[in-house]
């Protein structure tokens, strides 16, 4: 991306703050694993940059230390249009196993509900050298949730073109001193508007209905993507 995705502004709001608001609507305990850009209580990574599986392991240990030992609803911060409705479907699935949504033919393990049983394997995987989510996703018993009408709610943004494709109003983050970051090659100078039109109104997804038996009995671990 060329800049911090957690702090990039979506319609004037940092992406991590938007993610935190959606997560807090469907969880009881909310934590950020990262430097503290979401407004949630933050747990700093012991060694930043080691990959999402390591961050998930640290988030899980931080939640257990706070007495939260159930499932974890995990969300990376680079889904600019994620909604509480979509997260509620994932969190509220009636299965007791892990639930990973599938959007556009791709599993989304960084926007998923991970069961305590599967999370218990994370430290062993890390000790064996695994750093990505692929090993966790390959474990048996995971529910792949497709056909839920996700729309753009689970679309991630890995480059400026992705943001333009989603028709969102966005801008680069500023440095702590308030000075815009330098542009990456091929991009407009800092401060240049990235979209001239406002994003469309949020899509109503009344057909996405969570299982009421689960409700808010989930913990949350998130980190900047």
User: SSE string, helix = H, strand = E?
Assistant: EEHEEHEHEEEHHHEHEE
Strand order across the biggest sheet?
4-3-11-5-8
Tell me the CATH topology. Spore Coat Polysaccharide Biosynthesis Protein SpsA, Chain A
- Poorly predicted ranges: 176-217
Helix content: 10-25%
Per CATH, the superfamily is Spore Coat Polysaccharide Biosynthesis Protein SpsA, Chain A
Number of domains: 1
Using the CA coordinates, give the radius of gyration.
Answer: 17 Å
CATH architecture: Alpha-Beta Complex
The total beta strand count reads: 11
Number of helices: 7
Please state the structural category.
Answer: alpha/beta
Structural notes for this entry:
- With 225 residues, this protein is an alpha/beta fold.
- It has one domain (9-181, 201-223): Spore Coat Polysaccharide Biosynthesis Protein SpsA, Chain A.
- The protein contains seven helices and eleven strands.
- It has a five-stranded mixed β-sheet with strand order 4-3-11-5-8, with helices on both faces.
- Strand 6 (99-103) and strand 7 (106-107) form a beta hairpin.
- It is globular, with a radius of gyration of 17 Å.
